[in-house]
Write a structure and sequence with these properties.
Two copies of one chain form a homodimer. Chain A is of the alpha+beta class. The first copy, chain A, has seven helices and eleven strands. In chain A, strands 1, 2, 3, 4, 5, 6, 7, 8, 9 and 10 form a ten-stranded antiparallel β-sheet that branches. In chain A, strand 6 and strand 7 (98-112) form a beta hairpin. Chain A is globular, with a radius of gyration of 21 Å. Strand 10 of chain A pairs antiparallel with strand 11 of chain B, so a sheet runs across the interface. Chains A, B: This is Pyridoxamine 5'-phosphate oxidase family protein. Chains A, B: Residues 194-218 are annotated as: Disordered. Chains A, B: It holds the Pfam family Pyridox_ox_2.
Chain lengths: 218, 218
């Protein structure tokens, strides 16, 4: 179970909080990017970045544009949000239009991972999320690259999941009037056909860990 | 031109800042949701929400989970980020894996739109972004709904666009070694077939403003 706290408790009707941990994991595992929020100079900064999950630890690429996060010598309060948009909800009234979605919001302190074995593991988790199979297929990280890269870890202790996954919720009068179409237009994220690099030597075909990914599109 | 400020200036190589306003508009117009960041009790909060653009004004749905934003009696510092993920970049080395993307980051103060004509216009802009054609097709907002809904406006004066739109950027040694596939796996957002509401009366077919949207998928 997720542990509700005042800042993960929800007030909106029809946007249900999901309180089991498997739902949180599912949203995080299906998303491709997260939006990382920090406070900088007293104002919010929200940047997209790569991430990966292992158990109840979320790893973040420290090499994002958030220089202030990289430079921090102490733990930084962050909010990491992953949103999957599933559909546009067309209602009989303009006012009841909505979106179907699943979103995970995680609060905590992002801690730099410095111990070499743990940092290498964090890099593998990040790679496995961004490009499953590449950790085994591509050239491994060398010492110089390893020293230059930055990995942050965030505990999933304080997190919430919200979702809407239903049809239009119209007023009875609007349903009766029957003057507009109502339904859901699904939204999905898909992978296209792999595009080989211009400098790739002839003879290569895209490997299964790339081509097979199309089947995992949602 | 966008006006660069210290907080919109970028330091990352290969992730280029785009400085023309049409690029900003294009990213905002193509995205479906934004991630709205605010500072609450000193820590960041990032929530997905609907938005729409008219000229250099970004409208936000005030009826998001950000209750503190709705309740605010003064202007609230926000950061609104819209990210379009365009591809996964597979490099010969794990370290050079990346993403192709376009992202817009907007800083400013979100101001409640209270003047009725302006608020109605904001609602139309929000609807036109979420569900083009619904403003004309669906039942209009009534007085009770209009009073209950909240619209925020954010000026696009302080904004930046970042993008990466290229193939792998491998080390010459890795290209020469030729031991791994390199290329880009495109990522796209698409609309599926419209799903009529369970309580829709027979005889309706999805109208063109819904079905025609598939052609606009990216």
């Amino acid at each position: 179970m997720l542990s509700p706290t005042p800042r993960t408790t929800l007030g909106r009707k029809k946007h249900r909080a999901v309180t089991d941990r498997s739902a949180l994991h599912a949203v995080l595992d299906e998303g491709l990017i997260c939006h990382l929020g920090i406070v900088r100079d007293g104002v919010p900064l929200v940047l997209p970045t790569g991430y990966g999950r292992d158990g109840d630890t979320l790893y973040l690429h420290g090499s994002t544009g958030a220089a202030s996060l990289r430079a921090a010598t102490q733990d930084v309060d962050v909010c990491v949000t992953v949103t999957l948009l599933d559909g546009i909800v067309y209602s009989r009234s303009v006012n009841n239009h909505s979106m179907n979605y699943r979103s995970a919001v995680v609060f905590g302190t992002a801690k730099p991972v410095v111990e070499p074995e743990a940092k290498l593991h964090g890099l593998k988790v990040l790679t496995d999320h961004l490009a499953p199979g590449s950790w085994e297929h591509a050239r491994e990280v060398n010492a110089k690259e390893f020293a230059a890269v930055s990995v942050l870890a965030l505990d999933l202790a304080e997190a919430s999941v919200k979702m809407r996954a239903e049809g239009p919720d119209d007023e009875p009068d609007d349903v009766g009037a029957d003057t507009a179409w109502a339904g859901v237009l699904p939204v999905r994220t898909v992978f296209g056909a792999p595009e080989p690099s211009a400098d790739l030597s002839p003879g290569w075909t895209p490997p299964p860990h790339v081509t097979g990914r199309a089947a995992t599109a949602r």
